[in-house]
Write a structure and sequence with these properties.
Elements: E1 5-7, E2 24-28, E3 36-42, H1 56-63, E4 68-73, H2 83-97, H3 99-102, E5 104-114, H4 116-127, H5 131-134, E6 148-152, H6 164-171, H7 177-182, E7 196-201, H8 210-221, E8 226-231, H9 254-267
Parallel strand pairs: 3-4, 3-5, 5-6, 6-7, 7-8
Antiparallel strand pairs: 1-2, 2-4
């Protein structure tokens, strides 16, 4: 395995350059000449931090079934939108720029996000073609679209069921109505959005299950395929729901195998 940490903005200027935080991309690249799909992982953390529980342990689950994996440690508060989205778009560009060297199938890249990282992944799913992304050096038009999305207990809506902290950290307390609506994902779903695997728990009290339900409803209305699993029990932030990631929730650990089976079917199309 090729494991290294990449400074995604090395030698490139961007708004928060030199402020003490460096967004990085950790690689889990399988050796060999076989071209493989890849999964790019965005840990959660309410746009305050990036949780280690939703990082390497997740990457290793995908590498065990033959996918290259990457973990993005993206910008968080006090850095504001669009910087986290720019970080993710830059990471997609890096992976596709290096697809030949790393033996990545550039047409089979899924973005996997947890909680606020799920919001970031979904944001790229609906905003990957926005012109402001391509004004930033290092982001190439046509290279930013995820082929699939994996959304684990995602923050989605800015409305009644919002995780207020995530939106305040991302947009600030003085965000305009237009800015809040732009980042309320269920209001931005359109034909540009790729298929998604979505899972949540019914008793999640931090990011209510309505976030996933609102997204699924919007996707159904636009005829965008998704697979969704709602587990009855489990707190927010379960990650793998196994001892490996500290919180065990019987039954919920099945999500990873369900997701891998979904990926195999979707990547085979």
């Amino acid at each position: 395995m090729i494991a290294k940490t990449i400074d995604i903005w090395e030698n490139i200027d961007y708004t928060y350059k030199g402020d003490g935080f460096v967004p990085t991309l950790d690689t889990y690249i399988l050796k060999g000449e076989k071209k493989r799909p890849a999964v790019l992982i965005c840990p959660g953390g309410g746009y305050r931090h990036t949780s280690p529980r939703e990082a390497e342990a997740i990457a290793l689950q995908f590498t065990r079934v033959g996918y290259h994996s990457f973990v993005l440690y993206y910008s968080v508060a006090p850095r504001r939108h669009p910087q986290p989205l720019l970080d993710l778009a830059r990471s997609m560009t890096i992976i596709r720029e290096n697809a030949e060297e790393w033996n990545v199938d550039a047409g089979k890249i899924a973005v996997c996000g947890f909680s606020a990282g799920g919001h970031l992944a979904a944001s790229l799913g609906v905003h990957w073609n926005k012109s402001y992304l391509f004004k930033q050096e290092g982001i190439k038009e046509g290279w930013t679209k995820p082929n699939l999305l994996i959304l684990s207990y995602p923050v989605i809506t800015e409305g009644e069921f919002a995780h207020k902290g995530s939106f305040e950290n991302l947009l600030g307390s003085d965000a305009s109505k237009e800015q809040r609506e732009e980042m309320s994902i269920e209001k931005q779903v359109g034909v540009q959005m790729p298929p998604a695997f979505i899972w949540h728990t019914f008793e999640d009290s931090s990011v209510p299950v309505e976030n996933s339900l609102l997204l699924a409803k919007a996707m159904r209305e636009k005829n965008i395929p998704f697979e969704m699993h709602i587990y009855p029990d489990g707190v927010h932030g379960l990650s793998l729901a196994t001892e490996e990631t500290d919180i065990v929730q019987e039954g919920v650990e099945t999500w990873m195998d369900l997701c891998i089976n979904w990926l195999k079917r979707e990547f085979a199309k």
